[in-house]
Amino acid sequence: MNVAEAIAEILRREGTEYLFCFPTTPIMDACAEIGIRPIVVRQERVAGNMADGYSRQTNGKRVGVVSVQQGAGAENSFSGITQAFTDSSAMLVIPGNWSSDYASLPPNFDTVKNFEHISKWADRITSKDGLLPRMRRAYTLLRNGRLRPVILELPLDVASQEISDFSYAPVVQYCSQADPSEVKKAVNMLTGAKHPLIWAGQGCLYAEASKELVELAELVGARVTTSLMGKSAIDESGPLAIGAASFSKNALVVKALAEADVIFAIGASLARDFTAAHIPTDDLDGNPKRFIHSNVEVSDVNLYFSSESVLIGDAKLVLRQMITYIREKGIQRSEQHVGALKESVALQKRAWRDSFEELISSDDEPINFYRVIGDFMKTFDPDETVVSHEPGVTRDVLVPHYIATKPRSYLGWGHSTQLGFSLGACLGVKLAVPEKMVVNFMGEAAIGMVMGDLETAVREKIPIITIIYHNSLMNNYSRIIPKAAKLFQNDELSGNYAAVAKALGAFAERIEKPAEIIPAFNRAIEAVKRGEPVLLDIICGNQPFISYGGEDLQSLRDMQQKGGYGS
Question: Which domains does the chain carry?
Fold first, then answer.
């Protein structure tokens, strides 16, 4: 057994099903020989996106593995790894290199040096004797703490070295609880708050803590919002779920953030980038908001907000500790209090939804994108569908309006907003959950980045549905680049995406009338059942009405008339 064969065997023992790769790698044949299926993409970036989506959908229980050719292959994979790093997703990346003697010498691309800032750990396997400790450490890091990519470069001369002593046992996940004294402090803060708010992040998904999240919210009488990446951590149709606190958001989130006197962030970084909703400094009484922060590791706490209570541990275990303490002490909120809160949330949800009904049922031509989302929710079962977005309109309309009902039924992403990510990510998701309908919404700029990998979906028989928001524009960019847009039309795009998709072998249709949307969705579902990837090119108008500040439709129209955003 040589090093390449030993790596393949370790991957098999660690549960690897697929090797996302292009075009050839040191371990590709060895993996194929023992039943790990190589998935060859059209660009290395997409290999990373597929591994990323696969890992996220399995909550890191099955780690996506990427392997690319030395030099150009590693260079081209950089952005896919960066996306996983910024969004905290585990993947093992095994790039090649020409020779262990010359790996770090010019003009060779030194993967270890260049990737160390976008990985949890980057190293080179320098000899057969260094293989096992590095693989054990790699999987320990991939399964524990904050999940991020690990890079292990494999020079070609090392890959062929023979190993005589091979012994490897799969690595397990280690979970810890929080300090009991901090649990007591956190519970007392929540139960004593006038308007407690729970902010649930992706860590709740990784910990599979949705049940505990709901139970705690019921006990303390707290509304629950999520981060963009935490969307689907709680059933958004539930009585205390108010939606995601993202770049765009509904009125319930804005109201809850304004009212909250105590905010409990669980499995979330609370990072202050543009994908996260603004948190006002003070509560309605003019007092500074108080924070409780629970995370799997300490690096994010006391960073953007000072926390009075810090609970370091697995989200599921921490929530269970808090629930147990509340029940033992009998300090849960009264049923009347929680019931009144649920009624208030239900009324706010109804008012928000009704305010957009005009757009959701619009018969306008070109098609209003809200109509696309409305018809989508009428056609697809949210319990059996996984949905994702792209940066821009698809994200900003979907996030506050699409109701995610099951954990991982929505793949929210975007600390890095790399156009095109959702295609590869959803291909990885489909491989992880082949029984689900997997749908990604893309704009024209996004599909332009990765359209060649529709051929990957066709060739590898990975049937997802890609829906294109096609308005021949980069939506609302004329506000950002007004001179370039006016003088050189730099905000305009063009293309017949359905025709290109058909040429690549996908089932594709172009939809121009609102009445055609649902029949096209039903034909797409049937195509997926036949094993065919689908692209639906929906001709839409520009979308000026997006709730960045939680506005209802009338408020957005008023802002437009006054020259505000969307005008």
Answer: 3-159 (3.40.50.970), 180-345 (3.40.50.1220), 356-561 (3.40.50.970)
